Backbone:
């Protein structure tokens, strides 16, 4: 019996990296030649010059906010290629973003490995409790479940009483959906005096699995694992062992962690924005910023899969704050860092004092000297259009939490 869905999941890192570099080159050539947006962004870029995964950092990050602006000019923002098969479906998600179905294969969002790792198989009848309308989550998991031979009940998010009846009549053994909705169904069944006992496993996504919900499922003997993906990118990472920290990064994508507001990868163990590159030939997404914060775990997994792991969702990277009537963005903090030699790391701290916004620019600098404060202050004012205090701190003294704008007014501290 296979222990992994795809044998590449157990390949050495060197083999995986060679494959990903080759796939990146092919995608760069495709995007440059066939996409109006990418032909401009990649002008002067030679795909064959990319010989290592680290070379991808030469390219700019495309963030969701930029994609929304691009799509306002045309529903796919000029990213779609001209010479490849057109998507069979197109979706419209909150944001709003238009999302075409990837064109390759019977599991176009590549979600099947996540279900396989959760022990879903041909003997299972799966209640798919993601919506099948407007947004793609229902179709994403439906295709994956069918790929590994499951029978799918396309439940969606319907009347809970009806779902209790369906779970009993169909003898549902597995669930996919948000982390909390299965709990609602099970508690409703309990309240009706018809407890559901056939369900054995669940794959949850679309939100955090809180400890109380996890304990609730464990007490009922239900094994619950999580996956992380988006409508644009498909599967990014998935749990393989509920006892192990983090989620295995999926095959067929390149995952980076960059400093929020910048294009620069962070150092090992630092928290930053999850940036993903995929290889759909119709809709190239190269260095797409998810807006989610996480970090990489480099230690191997007990499950035998050899890819790196994401620690999990650690917050949002879009930390834009309104200070004294002006919006301050993470990219402006990065611009200050680039303009001031010797700055290692920086963040803006925003507080409320006596009803007034107080902004402080905290920066780690190789030279801890107050004579630098006036120069940095002028750069901060020029970039952020807001004057604030500047405090120089020792290297490695700022928290490793992925924040470049720490809005303490929101936290209430």
Residues:
């Amino acid at each position: 019996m296979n222990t992994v869905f795809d044998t590449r999941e157990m390949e050495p890192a060197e083999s995986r990296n060679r494959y990903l570099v080759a796939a990146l080159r092919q995608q760069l050539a495709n995007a440059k030649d066939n996409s109006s947006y990418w032909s401009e962004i990649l002008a002067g870029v030679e795909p064959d010059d990319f010989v290592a995964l680290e070379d991808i950092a030469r390219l700019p990050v495309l963030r969701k906010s930029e994609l929304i602006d691009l799509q306002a000019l045309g529903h796919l923002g000029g990213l779609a290629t001209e010479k490849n098969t057109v998507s069979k479906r197109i979706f419209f998600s909150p944001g709003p973003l238009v999302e075409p179905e990837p064109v390759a294969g019977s599991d176009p969002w590549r979600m099947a490995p996540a279900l396989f790792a959760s022990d879903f198989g041909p003997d299972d009848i799966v209640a798919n409790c993601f919506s099948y309308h407007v947004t793609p989550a229902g179709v994403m998991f439906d295709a994956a479940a069918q790929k590994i031979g499951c029978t799918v009940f396309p439940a969606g998010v319907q009347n809970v009483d009806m779902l209790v009846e369906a779970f009993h009549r169909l003898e549902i053994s597995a669930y996919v959906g948000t982390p909390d909705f299965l709990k609602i169904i099970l508690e409703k069944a309990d309240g009706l005096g018809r407890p559901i006992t056939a369900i054995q496993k669940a794959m949850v996504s679309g939100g955090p699995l809180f400890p109380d919900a996890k304990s609730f499922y464990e007490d009922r003997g239900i094994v619950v694992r999580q996956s992380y993906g988006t409508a644009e990118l498909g599967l990014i990472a998935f749990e393989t062992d509920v006892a192990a920290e983090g989620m295995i990064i999926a095959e067929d994508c390149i995952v980076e962690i960059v400093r929020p507001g910048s294009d620069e990868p962070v150092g090992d163990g630092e928290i930053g924005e999850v940036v993903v590159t995929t290889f759909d030939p119709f809709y190239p997404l190269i260095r797409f910023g998810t807006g989610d914060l996480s970090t990489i775990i480099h230690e191997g997994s007990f499950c035998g899969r050899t890819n790196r792991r994401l620690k999990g969702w650690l917050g949002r990277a879009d930390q834009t704050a309104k200070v004294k009537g002006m919006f301050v963005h993470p990219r402006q903090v990065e611009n200050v860092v680039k303009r001031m030699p010797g700055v290692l790391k920086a963040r803006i701290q925003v507080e409320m004092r006596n009803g007034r916004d107080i902004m402080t620019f905290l920066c780690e600098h190789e030279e801890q000297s107050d004579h630098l404060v006036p120069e940095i202050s002028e750069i901060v004012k020029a970039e952020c259009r807001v004057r604030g205090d500047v405090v120089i701190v020792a290297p490695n003294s700022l928290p490793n939490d992925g924040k470049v704008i720490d809005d303490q007014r929101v936290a209430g501290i």
Q: What stands out?
A: The mean pLDDT is 91. The chain has three domains: 23-100+248-318, 104-231, 321-411.
